[in-house]
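User: Show me a protein chain along with its predicted structure.
Assistant: Here is one chain, sequence first, then C-alpha cells.
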Amino acid sequence: MLDTPASKFASAARSKSGPRLDLQQHLADLEAAGLLVRIDRPINKDTELIPLVRWQFLGGMPEDQRRAFLFTNVIDSKGRRYDMPVVVGALASSPAIYALGMGRPVEEIGEAWMAAIANPIPPVATNDAPCQEVVITGDALRKEGLKALPVPVSTPGFDAAPYLTATLCVTKDPETGVRNMGTYRVALKAADRAVVRMVAREATGAGGFLHWLKYRERKEKMSIAIVVGCAPIVMFTGPQKLAVDVDEMAVAGGAAGEAIRMTRCRTVDLDVPADSEIVIEGLIDCDVLEPEAPFGESNGYVALEAFNMPIQVTAITHKKKPVFAQIISQVTPSESSVIKKVAYEPLFLAHLRTHLGVKGIRRVVMHERLTNLRPVIFLQFTAGTPRSEVWRGLNGASTLQSNCGKIVIAVSEDIDPQSMDAVLWSLAYRTNPVDDMLIVPNRGGVQGAQYAGNKTDSGLLVDATRKRPMPPLALPTREYMEHARGLWDELGLPALNVQAPWHGYTLDDWTDTWEIFARRTTAGDWEETGRETLKRQRRGLLPETPVRPGEEPSGD
C-alpha cells in the first residue's frame, strides 16, 4: 500500500476514538499525517498569504497533494507584525483533510452525517472556557479590537476590506430560543465594527437572516457571536442545509459522538463552543444596513457593493495563544467547495437511491471548478438503466434544493463524471438534443444569477447515457496501457497526470470474431486474418452491401 496522506490518515483515524474537538489538536494531527506545511518566513496577510495558498487550487495539483498552511510570521502592508499565527486550508483543502477532521474515512462521511442528524447529542454547559482566557472590551476594544486580528485579504486587487471567512455565526430565534450557526462572510469596518452578509433572500433566507427578520419586527437588536477557529466537526455543521428549527450544535455532537462543550458569551445572550480559538461578540441594529463589498465570491465573480447587516462589536475573547483560522473561499475549487462537496454528494445520492428509489443510479458528482458545485450536477447510471429511471433521477436531482441542479447531466457508467472531456464526448455522441434535453422553466436563481441580467431562471436536464450498443473506445486496451505506463516510469519520463478514459474498452458492439482478429494482430499473426477476409471477398461481397462476419452470403 502506498504511503499517501489518505493511508496515513487511515492509520491515525484508527488510533483515536473520534474527531478532535479542539482546532490546535487537529492541526497537530494534520502535521503528523504530513498534511500541514509550516511557513516561517514573513508573509504579508494583505497581499501574499491567500494568493500563495490559492496556487494549490489553480496550479493543476492533484487533489491529494493539497495541504493546510500554517503561517507563523504574519505581517501586513503597514509593517505591523502579528503574534498570532494564521492557518488556511486546515478544514478541507482536500477530502483527506476533511476526513481527518471528521475522524472517519471519506467513504463513511455521508452516512455519518445522516446518522448525526437522526441521533443528535445536545451540547453541555461549562464554565471552563479556553475561548475566554483573554477578554477584550471597553477602550482596548475601541482602540485595537478587530485590528489586532491577522485577518487576510482574500482577493487582493478587488476586495474592499479584510474578511473573516472561516466563521461560525451564532444567532438565536427570539421566539423559540433555537440557535442557528451559519458560515457568512464578515467585512471589517473598524476596530469595533463589522458587517455580515446573511444571504438576504426573501424566499429561501438562511437561518440567521430569518432571525434578523424577527428581531426587526420586534424592534430589537439581534445578538451575534462570530466564532473563528472551532473544532472541524463543529465548523462542518454550519454549511449543512438543516431545517431552521434544528439545533446544529446537537447535530455536531451527534457527528462527534459526544456533547459539544458550550459557554455563555461575556456581553451577549448566546452560547458558543468553549474550546474555540476566538469569539467576536456583538449586536446587530436591524433598523439599518451598511454598504459592504466588493468581495470575491464562490460563483466566480466579484460580489459588488451591497447593503448588509452592521455589527457593533461588544467584546473579543480568545485563548491565551490562539490560532487565527481562515478558509480559502471565492472561486472554486476552494476549501469551502470541498466542505460542501464531501457532504452534498452523498446527500444527493441517498435522496435519489433511498428516498426516490431511482434504479441504476451509481454516483452523483457536483462540478467544482469555477461553477461553485451547485449549478452543474452529473449523475452516473449503470448500463441498461431504463430511460424512465434516468429521467426520474434527473428531475430528482434538480429539485432537491432550490439553488442546486440548474444543469443536470446523466451519463453511463463508463463515463467518469469528474472528467469534463469524457462528459463532452458523451454529449457529442450519445445525445439527440430534440429527444434527450429538456428545458425546465421557473427555477429560482443560483448564486450569482444576477450577473446574467435575468430575474427568473430555468434549468436544463440532459440524458447523455448510452442508449444502444456502440463500438469500443479507440485507445489501446488496459493491459497494453498499463504495461506502457511501467515502461514510462522505468525510463524516468516526466510525471503523468492521468485522467479517464486512459484505455480502450468495449461498448457491446463487438463480436468474438473481431476479438480474435485483435489478438492475432498483437501476436503478429495478422496475415491469418487476411487469408480469412480474402475468402469472404471471393464469396461475392460488394462495397454497397457490407455485412458483418458470420452474415456473408454463401459461396465457393
